[in-house]
Amino acid sequence: GQQLNQSPQSMFIQEGEDVSMNCTSSSIFNTWLWYKQDPGEGPVLLIALYKAGELTSNGRLTAQFGITRKDSFLNISASIPSDVGIYFCAGQILNAGGTSYGKLTFGQGTILTVHP
Amino acid sequence: DVKVTQSSRYLVKRTGEKVFLECVQDMDHENMFWYRQDPGLGLRLIYFSYDVKMKEKGDIPEGYSVSREKKERFSLILESASTNQTSMYLCASREQGFHTEAFFGQGTRLTVV
Asked: What's the mean pLDDT when you consider all of chain B?
């Protein structure tokens, strides 16, 4: 299947620091999504990106859809303890023939720990 | 509020047992998915369904099957559970189209002993 490489695998930061994580792929994606998973829960959507070059913010979160359509990054500014969790990037690619059934490919996840 | 509900949060099964994981969504979504989540590997797609009675293999379908008899329900079946199927299983649903998000259930942590 398609591969998304997400880095870093884990981060240990102090409260108030900024965080940056990214995803790269050898394939072109036409949608990039960023999800957060709290302990014991399913992932929840943070930000959705639909156009190459798009830069979108959601509160302290900012994400960008790379110009090449093969990468995306997520920044979190001024981290707080409730930012802890696992962050996943996900991409959607068109199948041959230009169709898609909404299938998303996920990165390996970034585990974020925030020390008060 | 949109909702994807998985029937169990925790399950413990014995090797060789037939296991059913159930997922129900109340959003009338066409697409439903089963992923498994393992540390360092992210979410890997097992099977997905884009319509009632329609199914497609994902990236790791071996040892699993699925059933979608009704639009709101998507079941994952382990015909003969093995210890390497111990994992967190996540169900998701998504409306057809590109500018739509996937909604996830809370997950089922399955342990096969």
From this structure: 93
